[in-house]
Amino acid sequence: MYLDPADERILAGEQGETRQKMLALLVALGKVFGAERLVPIRSAQVSGASYKTIGKYGLEWLNSLDAKAVVPAVLNPIGMPRGRWEEMGIDADFAGKQQAVVAAYERLGVMLECTCTPYYLHETLFGDHLAWSESSAVSYANSVIGARTNREGGPGALAAALTGKTPFYGFHLDENRKPQVIIDIEADTRNWSIATYGALGYQVGKLVGNRIPYFRGIHADPDQLKALGAALAATGAVALYHVDGVTPEAKVNHYPLNGLEEIVVESAEITRIFTDIPVDAVAVGCPHCSPAEIGTIARLLEGKHVKKPLYVFASQSVIDKNRRPVQIIEKSGARVYADTCMVVSPVMEQYTAIMVNSGKALAYVPDMCGAAARIGSIEECVKVATG
Ligand code: F3S
What we know:
The structure is a single chain. The chain has helices at residues 5-11, 17-32, 51-64, 92-107, 135-145, 154-163, 194-208, 222-235, 248-252, 267-271, 291-301, 316-321, 323-331, 359-369, 378-386, and strands at residues 38-40, 44-46, 73-75, 131-132, 165-167, 181-186, 213-216, 242-243, 261-266, 281-284, 310-313, 335-337, 353-356, 372-375. The strands form four sheets. A five-stranded parallel sheet has the order 12-11-10-13-14, sandwiched between helices. Strand 6, helix 7 (194-208) and strand 7 (213-216) form a beta-alpha-beta unit. The protein is an alpha/beta fold. FE3-S4 cluster (F3S) binds at residues 77, 116, 134, 136, 230, 286-288, 313, 341, 343-344, 360-361, 364. FE3-S4 cluster is lined by residues 77, 116, 134, 136, 230, 286-288, 313, 341, 343-344, 360-361, 364.
């Protein structure tokens, strides 16, 4: 594996033991995956932020490191909103340990944002190389933006944040970004909601596994694509998809599609995912809400009061920049929380059935929260919450 003189100096320990170890980790990963070299990254998103995931030994490891991130880096969602954990009913012992993990990352120069939507925080452009961890964020970066990232594990993403580089393999390379299966949508998609795209991803993810799908017959906006990609990565292992005439690489590349398997998806396969089971809570914001989604929820809730718990999840940065609609949402009795989500927060485990507007949450809520899940549009979610 080729290493430039700067890499060699880091490996020789010139920038301290932590960077030396981190670069050695990236070189080892690169060798496993056949990378020819490292590539500079624009940003990192680091998983392994929840105390539940990394535990005592993970925290000790983080505390043993001594270096600062050299590119913008954020964390994946954690089990609680940092500033409002008591209100959410989180146990003080868990909160203390979680805060220690967050403090360890802060010492390493990672921004105190715990979100699966880092693309709302830092500018991420077509062709940028990244080291992101969370599957929906990886899918959005690769597919909707046309940036390039593999799905990094926590240590790999942290090593990339602390060195500014990642091994050049997988989705960083043009040849690994070509479509592998065609998905033809035979349905009238003009009135499809974000939830319908989530349901489409839920269905197609099961059919394609880890192949790169090329969709034909849909005209989704970025929030709808966000929902599609998150669900594709949840029921399948899709880290990149293309949409004919919509996603940036499908627009600039004339991919040869001859010989690829073609799968037809009809309207009935999607509509049957929408049930009307009774629920005792509603949660939206998987992936974390965009400013436009916050605005839609506020418009729908203005002047109303919720009769069932309604949780909205977004990054702190999006919440801070959209104070007025957030106030409208909270005035209804709904809650807007940062840092966490309906899947990773233990607070959702108290419910028996949860309504969501996300195909990814539909897939994960039953196992992660022990509750039944139902999908509906944001409008339907608000209607169910306000009775
Ligand atoms: Fe994000 Fe949690 Fe969904 S991390 S994609 S809101 S499961």
